[in-house]
Amino acid sequence: REYRVITAAKDRRCKAWNDAAKELDTGSDGDPLMLTGPEGERVARMAQAVRSTPGIAELLQADGRSEQSVFTRDPATGLLVRIRLDWITSSARAMDLKTTTDLRNDKLFRSVVDYRYHVQKAFYSDAFLWAFGERLDFAFGVIESEAPHVSKLVRLPDDVVAWGRLQYRRDLDTYARC
């Protein structure tokens, strides 16, 4: 609902794109909420894939809210910290949506490490506990960025999350010292 798809624009260099950008008074780069026709079609296909994936669909259909920020203090350092959940249900089940090029296990694990998803999972879970005194059931909805847009709900193993906890703890302690 927030994005405007310029269906006549096949790319961001064509006349239709420039005309739309001029009409919306955004400059030649366009508004960050503007998509070309092919981009809009791709996003629609990805959204459909996510909404039809077991686990992800159930979470999105549950009573919940999107883009929720939680502010709390790290009890070890006293630092004010923030997490921002893509989706959280009223029963403290949460999900962040991620894209990847390949959902096969070895490729997915590489993305987890490269983008520090294990650190995010550990930090979000702990920060939620600090703020509300309850456990957060947190998972990742992961979708392939290219067709056919395979997607699945991913729960990281406890040992991987423990590794992430060591990393965020080191990062927060370093930040506090600085």
N-to-C series of helices and strands: EHEHHEEEHHEEH
**Beta content:** 25-35%
Shape: globular
Separate helix tally:
6
Number of strands: 7
Q: What number is the mean pLDDT?
A: 92
* Percentage of residues in helical conformation: 40-55%
Question: Main beta sheet, described?
Answer: 5 strands, mixed
Spatial strand sequence of the major β-sheet: 3-4-5-6-7
**Intertermini distance:** 42 Å
Give me the Rg, rounded. 19 Å
Structural class: alpha/beta
Uncertain parts: none
Explain this structure to me?
The protein is built from six helices and seven strands; from the N terminus they run E-H-E-H-H-E-E-E-H-H-E-E-H. With 178 residues, it is an alpha/beta fold. The strands form two sheets. The protein has a five-stranded mixed β-sheet with strand order 3-4-5-6-7. Strand 6 (137-144) and strand 7 form a beta hairpin. The longest helix is centred in the C-terminal third of the chain and has 20 residues, at 158-177. The mean pLDDT is 92.
Give a topology summary:
Elements: E1 4-6, H1 15-23, E2 34-36, H2 37-51, H3 56-61, E3 64-73, E4 80-89, E5 93-100, H4 105-114, H5 117-132, E6 137-144, E7 151-154, H6 158-177
Parallel strand pairs: 1-2, 5-6
Antiparallel strand pairs: 3-4, 4-5, 6-7
Helix pairs in contact: 5-6
